[in-house]
From TrEMBL:
Gene: bioB
EC class of the enzyme, as a word: transferase
GO molecular function: 2 iron, 2 sulfur cluster binding; 4 iron, 4 sulfur cluster binding; biotin synthase activity; iron ion binding
Organism encoding this protein: Bizionia paragorgiae
Protein's recorded name: Biotin synthase
Transmembrane segments: none
């Protein structure tokens, strides 16, 4: 109760407690990812029910963005299941999506994996508002979940984004079997970034069949509330987002999270590939709690969009050497092996 009270007090000092930022997450390229993130059904090596698709067209993305806007979203976050961005046609198409959504006067966020400084600058120039790159867990526990890249790569990408005026969205997942020290470690890593991220998603693991973490028990709501409250205290200015796992939470549980300082949610019936509450249900909850959706560009002015023909940057065709530690994580190996056997 003391923690809640302190978090709610800090929340009121830095934010309007009655507005909540609403984002829509759009999977613009699903599945077939080469990485081995233990929580992710989009990793090609695990046997899950996710059906992959190619990169969406700009027109498809525009139609979805307009739908999201009419449903009350102020931000569209586009996710592609890539290890890192590769210069070329597909990245050019993503840049065009960014231009298109920014022109709809919505905040545009992308989560595309690791990016170089030049790629960050090209996204910024197209009108990107935020780049999402989660730290996922503490540096120690990260090694128990992912073997195909290192924690330092995450920090490097965030650093590359910071060389532009694009804001940083970075958070993590609880319920992956980590210790409380790992949750604290992740918050230390996030809160000592300078500047701190403008947005921090807190996800509760959705254990998907076929992934290495399929047997993890769902976390108790109290863990989520405590995590949100602690995040609010150490990241006072940041928008703290309730992300994956909201379908497992009661309305009362979500209300306590809002009280503890959460002021952002993902709307829409799907979060990339996992379920999410219906938009109408969310709006009903907002009405009951006296909350209203935050207007776009409340925290920072809208970036300008530079057309591709006027760009001052070009595709460099870079081949950066992101790390590949490839240490053995037993449960990841088992899930991969199960995949092979089932094939
Ligand atoms: S979380 Fe992202 S990088 Fe990791 S396997 Fe899933 S899509 Fe790939």
């Amino acid at each position: 109760m003391e923690l809640l009270y302190e978090a709610a007090t800090i929340h009121r000092l830095h934010h309007d407690p009655n507005t909540v930022q609403v984002s829509t997450l759009l999977s613009i390229k699903t599945g077939g990812c080469s990485e081995d993130c233990g929580y992710c059904p989009q990793a090609a090596r695990y046997h899950t029910n996710v059906e992959g698709n190619n990169l969406m067209t700009v027109q498809q993305v525009k139609a979805q963005a307009l739908r999201a806007k009419s449903g009350g979203s102020s931000r569209v976050c586009m996710g592609a299941a890539w290890r890192n961005v590769k210069d070329g046609e597909e990245f050019d198409q993503v840049l065009e999506m960014v231009r298109t959504i920014n022109k709809l006067d919505m905040e545009v966020c992308c989560t595309l994996g690791m990016i170089t400084e030049n790629q960050a600058k090209r996204l910024a120039e197209a009108g990107l508002y935020a780049y999402n790159h989660n730290l996922d867990s503490s540096e120690d526990y990260y090694k128990e979940v992912i073997s195909t890249r290192g924690f330092e790569d995450r920090l490097q990408t965030i650093d590359n984004v910071r060389k532009t005026n694009v804001t940083v969205c970075s958070g993590g997942i609880i319920g992956m079997g980590e210790k409380i020290e790992d949750r604290a470690g992740m918050l230390v890593a996030l809160s000592t970034l300078n500047p701190q991220p403008e947005s921090t998603p807190i996800n509760a693991l959705v254990a998907v069949e076929g992934t290495p973490l399929e047997n993890q028990e769902p976390i108790a709501i109290w863990d989520m509330i405590r995590m949100v409250a602690t995040t609010r205290i150490v990241l006072p200015e940041t928008q703290v987002r309730l992300s994956a796992g909201r379908t497992q939470m009661t309305k009362e549980g979500q209300a306590l999270c809002f009280f503890a300082g959460a002021n952002s949610i993902f709307a829409g019936d799907k979060l990339l590939t996992t379920p999410n509450p219906d938009v109408d249900e969310d709006m009903e909850l907002f009405r009951a709690l006296g909350l209203t959706p935050q207007k776009p560009f409340t925290k920072k002015t809208q970036p300008q969009t530079v057309e591709a023909s006027d760009s001052e940057y070009e595709s460099l065709g870079e081949k950066p050497k992101w790390t590949r530690p490839n240490h053995k994580i037993e449960r990841n190996e088992l899930a991969k092996h199960k995949h092979k056997t089932l094939k």
